[in-house]
Amino acid sequence: MPFDLGPGTAAALAIALLGAAYVRGYSGFGFSAIFIAFAALVTNPLPLIPVVFACEVLMTVFQARGIRGHVDWRRVLWLLLGAAVAVPFSVSVILSVGEDTARITISAIILLMSLVLLTGWTLKTRIGPLGHGGVGVLSGACNSAGIGGLPVAAFMSAQPMEAAVFRATMIVYLTGLDIITLPWLWAGGLVTWDTAIAVVMAFPILGVGIWLGSRQFLSASPSTFKRFAVMLLLALSVLGLLRVLLRM
User: Fold this and answer.
1) How far is Cα 46 from Cα 64, in angstroms, rounded to an integer?
2) Axis crossing angle, helix 73-97 with helix 99-118, rounded to the nearest 10
3) 167 with 53: CB under 8 angstroms?
């Protein structure tokens, strides 16, 4: 098994991978945050972060046909420009100060965002390129801990946006973000042969999870989708905080 995982741990991670892929198929985000938060309960999650990012890219291949007509490309571009500025710094920080310190700070920020969104707050003015670039910087700073999609999801949940556009834009943005981040993780020594083996083993599980989640999305109403997105943000932030606290 890659990363010297025992059979029981590998089986538990496979189940978590399936559940996280289902959520990604339905909502367009949450895959990395869910899987890494669970992985941290049973093993050291840091070597698994490059695996998760590679899986994110693979899942976009499964979803490309169904989303390409709904992507807000201008929004994606500005978000990625901001993220590209922050990712190198983010990776160097997490390799030096540790994942727990970064994750507890980020999870607390996302928890606050989620609680604000639950009140029904929305952005009243149109957000321009600089605003999206700024959110991209925050997202890039979060991504080395595997939760770079959460600030963007919170930001877009506060704006009037069709569910299909939200989902497609998140999928494409996260793919670009992970492609930007992976070379920096490789430079930091986190990408190994075990990474490639784990991605190959994950491939069929990803396909099943994406298929199931995508089918569920097609039957969801816009109000149901947005409520799910906000509740998922809240749950992921709480899970991230609990994981760190339990390890202390």
Assistant:
1) 28
2) 140
3) no
Is residue 172 within 8 Å of residue 67, measured between CB atoms?
yes
pTM: 0.82
Q: Which of 92, 183, 169, 90 is nearest to 137 (CA)?
A: 90
Which amino acid type is present at position 66?
G
Beta strands in 8-116 (DSSP E): none
Which tokens sit at 205? 């599980």
Dihedral sign of CA atoms 28, 32, 37, 41 in order:
positive
Which domain does 6 fall in, by range? 2-247
- What residues contact residue 143 under an 8 Å CB cut-off, 6+ apart? 83, 87, 90, 149, 177, 178, 181
Domain count along the chain: 1
- Contacts of residue 110, defined as CB under 8 A and 6 or more positions apart, other chains included, come to 147, 150, 151, 154, 233, 236, 237, 240
Q: How far apart are CA 99 and CA 8, in angstroms?
A: 24
Q: What is the pLDDT of residues 9-22, one digit of tens each?
A: 999 999 999 998 99
- What does 181-193 look like in DSSP terms, one character per residue? HHHHHHHTT---H
Kindly report, residue by residue over 98-145, the tens digit of the pLDDT: 666 766 766 777 677 777 767 766 777 778 899 999 999 999 988 887
User: H or E segment at 203?
Assistant: helix 193-218
H helix or E strand, kind and range, residue 11 = helix 7-27
What's the CA gap between 34 and 233, in Å, rounded?
A: 10
Q: 216-237, pLDDT tens digit by residue?
A: 887 777 667 767 777 877 887 7
Instruction: Tokens for 167, please give them.
Output: 């989902």
